[in-house]
Specification:
Blueprint (H helix, E strand, L loop, with lengths): L5 H12 L5 H12 L13 H10 L16 H21 L3 H11 L5 E4 L2 H16 L4 E4 L1 H4 L12 E5 L6 H4 L2 H7 L2 E6 L5 H5 L2 E4 L15 H20 L4 H7 L3 H6 L8 E2 L5 E3 L4 H7 L9 E5 L5 E6 H9 L10 H4 L7 E2 L4 H11 L3 E5 L5 E6 H9 L19
Parallel strand pairs: 1-2, 1-3, 3-4, 4-5, 7-8, 10-11
Antiparallel strand pairs: 6-12, 8-9, 11-12
Helix pairs in contact: 1-2, 4-11, 5-11, 6-11
Length: 411
């Protein structure tokens, strides 16, 4: 006799594999859901002898009556899974309401930190949520439920807000924390699909992601549920960040490494320092300037001209020199530098970050950009040849990425 449904079979496996269940509980569950049929009738069960044989042969455990998906259906099935999760996300977005607003307000008013907890796949989503909150201006830590009841509950303070993730809302390891969280924390916010669950009833605020079937033919592995919880967490983190006015500059402070760090770094990190620049004063001839700033090694493509106070007043570029020499004037090099320099130029403040500098270089189609202090004195220069390799450099642990497949087609 077959079990009443795939869900009941899954429930039985879950109960049997959970520690602390008595034999009586398991027998009661079996009689209720399996109609007195022995456990061996479960189609997804595998005998211990078969498990041993499979392990020795290095083969994955699988049920003999579960057909394999043929290669010609892989793309189509992949699209179905993504469309199924996308439809659930659409319903989630449409259901955002007052509870979401209260959750945002609770995080904005939190004088302490945000603690995120969950176990299993929900716990993995929770770790990501804690990291997203921390990197966007909301200090957050992840608390593992099993570790919490062995001393780590001490991290929860009366000024903290706790975010609890459990799709069913009935996860034993999570729910045993709820009485303590209610006493210790400022607020408890649940991200769950079970509004009426134990977690839903205990939480101060419930962010209900709804009940949706898991993706895949079996519908057992956490897929749609984890996507929904992650999306709700992302929405919460981004709205709180924007409500705080979290800036690109603040974001860069928390991301000093990697491609994000390079792209949002201060211009002073990538400029050539003043000591490496060619700088000359007004009042000298072109020849005197060229002799004075001559130096070995790689040079910039322009000379920065400053006045008596050291403020930048012009640039003498390689193009300016070429035009001067093409004039065929024998005394061209004896002309005052102020007569032939470029007086209309662009600069960037030393306090600026790389996106601003890159924008100027790109829009104005220039190859050098002087970096100046608040008084307009040059402190360095950005040379586009120095930046190409730096800003285009990929992460060391990234590859070119997989091919992008459209989510539509003949399947």
């Amino acid at each position: 006799m077959q079990p009443k449904s795939a869900l009941t079979a899954y429930q039985w496996i879950q109960v049997e594999s959970t520690g602390g269940r008595s034999g009586a509980e398991r027998m009661l569950f079996q009689r209720r859901f399996m109609e007195e049929e022995p456990v061996s009738a479960l189609p997804n069960r595998v005998s211990e002898a078969h498990r041993t044989d499979a392990r020795e042969a290095g083969q994955p455990l699988r049920s003999e009556d579960q057909p394999r998906l043929l290669p010609q259906h892989w793309q189509g099935r992949g699209r179905e899974v993504i469309r199924q999760e996308a439809a659930a996300l659409g319903a989630l977005a449409a259901g955002i309401g007052d509870a979401f607003e209260r959750a945002v307000q609770a995080l904005l008013e939190c004088p302490g930190k945000v603690i995120v907890t969950g176990i299993g796949k929900a716990g993995i989503v929770g770790r990501k949520l804690a990291a997203s909150l921390s990197s966007t201006g909301t200090p957050s830590v992840f608390l593992h439920p099993a570790e919490a009841v062995h001393g780590d509950l001490g991290v929860v303070q009366s000024t903290d807000v706790v975010l609890v993730l459990s799709y069913s809302g009935e996860t034993q390891e999570v729910n045993q924390l709820l009485p303590y969280l209610g006493e210790c924390a400022r607020h408890t916010i649940a991200i769950t699909g079970g509004r009426s669950s134990s977690l839903g009833r205990a939480a101060d605020i419930v962010l209900d992601v709804g009940q949706h079937p898991e993706a895949g033919e079996l519908g057992l592995a956490p897929t749609t549920s984890t996507t929904l919880m992650m999306a709700m967490g992302d929405a919460l983190a981004m709205v709180v960040s924007e409500a705080k006015g979290f800036s690109r500059q603040q974001f860069a402070v928390f991301h000093p490494a990697g491609s994000l760090g390079r792209q949002l770094a201060p211009v002073t990190d990538y400029m050539r320092s003043r000591a490496e620049c060619r700088i000359a004063r007004l009042g000298h001839s072109v020849r005197e300037v060229l002799v004075a700033v001559s130096r070995p090694g790689r040079r910039t493509g322009c000379i920065m001209i400053v006045d008596e106070g050291g403020c930048l007043v012009g640039l003498f570029t390689d193009s300016d020199l070429a035009r001067l020499l093409e004039s065929a004037d024998a005394s061209a090099l004896e002309r005052p530098i102020g007569d032939v320099m470029t007086r209309s130029f662009h600069t960037v403040a030393s306090s600026a970050r790389m996106p601003e500098a890159i924008d100027i270089l790109t829009r104005k189609k220039i190859s050098e950009l002087p970096v100046v202090d608040l008084q307009g004195r040059p402190v360095g220069i950005l040379d586009v040849t120095d930046l190409v390799g730096v800003l285009a450099q990929p992460e060391e642990d990234e590859d070119d990425g997989p091919a992008i497949l459209p989510l539509h087609g003949p399947h």
